[in-house]
Amino acid sequence: MRVVVALGDGAVRSGAEPLTVEGQRAAVAAACACLAPVAEVHELVIAHGKGPLAGLLSLPAPVHEVGSPVDCPATLTEGMIGYLLEQELSNLLPAEAPLATVLTMVEVDPDDAAFAAPTTFVGPLFAAGPARRIAEQRGWVLGRDGDSWRRVVPSPRPRRIVETRPVEWLLARGCVVICSGGGGIPAMYQRRTHTLVAVEAVVDENRASAVLALDLGADLLVIADGVDAVYLDWGTPDQRAIVRAHPDALDPELFPGSAMAARVEAAAAFARSSGRSAIIGSLEDLPAMLAGDGGTRITVQAEGMETR
Q1: Do residues 70 and 153 touch, judged by C-beta distance below 8 A?
Q2: Can you give the chain as a three-state secondary structure string?
Q3: Which residues pair with 108 in a beta bridge?
Q4: Under 8 Å between Cβ of 296 and 246
Q5: Using one digit for the tens of pLDDT, what is the confidence trace for 218-257?
Q6: What are 161's strand-pairing partners?
Q7: C-alpha count within 13 angstroms, C-beta hemisphere, residue 189
Q8: Is 172 a residue whose pLDDT tops 60?
Q9: Cβ atoms < 10 Å from Cβ of 179
Q10: Strand pairing class (220-225; 230-232)
Q11: Using alpha carbons only, what angle is made at residue 189 by residues 185 and 190, rounded to the nearest 5 degrees?
């Protein structure tokens, strides 16, 4: 079975660990302990969120000082977290098991409406005075984030994973592949020259993982984070876990103001387009989810929504 496991930030980050590379390594090692048994049985593709390393990368040389475009930190994040996943997973798998991290570009549509309405925060926080100067100097759009200001960039929808064929070739040779990290590196084709160029944007990692799973013809998409299932009325006395649901029964608006809405949207899109299942749950429950138990299974085979 070909399985795409999308690791959310909650799956590879421990709140008790400090914001350091070694803290990230410890969290990655714990995640790899859950992934290794899957890699021994199935074709495994691992995607991941941006993780705390995205914050670390901005600390030594803030983006407003060096003028670094958004795609460069995205590339560094993909490489660094991919390296940690490779190393920690290789320590748990047979010595001959091949692993590879593929720096992944994600094609977006230049006409995507998101380019007219930037919404995603990136980079460091600024006070109001410096924020105004930086916005004028760089031509950036800045938005209020609490008492401070941060740059906001578009979050267009992913159209396809550019490196799908190399990933397919690696899977055919028995390789565990790590790709599409942090939503991938946004890119688009210029109309006149059909040249592939970087885009000042951020792609949602859940949407990118769903497109990755579709492009690869995956049998199963697992979105693994720090929660064991999707819950209705989360945090209230009436909360209940969704066990199984048809994609059309899961309206992202049922989860207002939460990161779960993006996961639900991506999982439902994969299930609806592929006719296969997507599961949202905790990485620790991965064996149970693969066995058909645990998490929230989203499938066109379901009727409505089943809760517990």
Answers
A1: yes
A2: CEEEEEECHHHCCCCCCCCCHHHHHHHHHHHHHHHHHHHCCCEEEEEECCCCHHHHHHCCCCHHHHCCCCHHHHHHHHHHHHHHHHHHHHCCCCCCCCEEEECCEEEECCCCHHHHCCCEEEEEEECHHHHHHHHHHHCCCEEEECCEEEEEECCCCEEEECCHHHHHHHHHCCCEEEECHHHCEEEEECCCCCCEEECCCCCCHHHHHHHHHHHCCCCEEEEEECCCCEEECCCCCCCEEEEEECHHHCCHHHCCCCCHHHHHHHHHHHHHHHCCEEEEEEHHHHHHHHCCCCCEEECCCCCCEEEC
A3: 158
A4: no
A5: 999 999 988 999 999 998 999 999 999 999 999 988 998 7
A6: 106
A7: 8
A8: yes
A9: 27
A10: unpaired
A11: 130
> What distance in Å separates the CA atoms of residue 229 and residue 210, rounded to the nearest whole number?
18
Residue 220's DSSP bridge partners are: 3, 277
Name the residue among 28, 31, 27 with its Cα closest to residue 14.
27
At 260, list the tokens.
């779960």
d(CA 205, CA 95) in angstroms, rounded, equals 30
The two three-digit tokens of residue 158, written as one number: 């992913």
Separation of alpha carbons 144 and 121, rounded Å: 9
Give the separation between CA 219 and CA 3, rounded to whole angstroms. Answer: 6
Structural contact between residues 224 and 6, judged by C-beta atoms closer than 8 angstroms: yes
Output the CA torsion sign for 69, 71, 77, 80: negative
Structure token digits, residue 257? 């103001």
Q: The whole model's pTM is what?
A: 0.91
Question: What burial letters (b/e) apply to 13-28, b meaning 16+ CB within 10 Å?
Answer: beeeeeeeeebbebbb
78-113 per-position pLDDT tens digit: 888 999 999 999 999 999 999 999 999 999 999 999
Strand order of the sheet with strand 185-189?
158-161, 105-108, 185-189, 196-198
Strand 296-298 versus strand 158-161 pairing type: unpaired
- Are the CB atoms for 46 and 180 separated by under 8 Å? no
In one-letter notation, the amino acid at residue 209 is S
